[in-house]
Amino acid sequence: MKSIALIFSFLWAICHFSQAQSENSIDLVNAVQKLTEAMIHPDKTALKKLTDKKLSYGHSSGKIENQDKFIESLLSGASDFVSIDLQNQNYEVVDNIGVARHILVAETNDGGVPGKVKIGVMMVWRYDNDQWKLLVRQAYKLPPA
């Protein structure tokens, strides 16, 4: 009888852990989507809520911004996304760390100059106080097709 109870306890723990991981993964996907929307339609409050105070935001050019500079660039129009399409998305959650990878295809209007961009992006998110916050984002240039 003890062994049956132990087996059921073990199975319950596996199902519970899998469900928690799955919910965390869905929350991470939603956080990436909210950040994408906030980058197209910059909102200081939303951007602060979605990013960590220690944010390191790396551009494919090599430029690195902290949280304040990242938000300032979007609000001022220095970095202006007209549209963003995330392709080949991949998510992984380990404990309170989430890694999101994708290809970002966007129309931009940085400083009033229209442009198009297609870059690879890796983001590291941290789950803290019941929400995901972007801690690190690094973009990279894709090899020529």
**Strand order in the sheet with the most strands:** 2-1-6-5-4-3
- CATH class category label: Alpha Beta
Number of helices: 3
- Overall pLDDT confidence: 88
Low-confidence stretches: 5-21
CATH fold title: Nuclear Transport Factor 2, Chain: A
Q: Separation of termini?
A: 62 Å
What is the CATH-assigned architecture? Roll
Global structural class: alpha+beta
Strand content is: 35-45%
Please give the number of β-strands. Answer: 6
Largest sheet: 6 strands, mixed
Q: Helicity range of the residues?
A: 25-40%
Sum up the overall morphology in one term: globular
N-to-C order of helices and strands? HHEEHEEEE
Rg calculated over all Cα atoms:
19 Å
Overall structural domain count: 1
Task: Please explain how this structure is put together.
With 145 residues, this protein is of the alpha+beta class. It has one domain (2-141): Nuclear Transport Factor 2, Chain: A, CATH 3.10.450.50. Helix content is 39%, strand content 45%. It contains three helices and six strands. A six-stranded mixed β-sheet has the order 2-1-6-5-4-3. Strand 1 (51-58) and strand 2 form a beta hairpin. It is globular and about 40 Å long. The protein starts with a helix and ends with a strand. 19% of the residues are buried. The model is unreliable at 5-21 (pLDDT under 50).
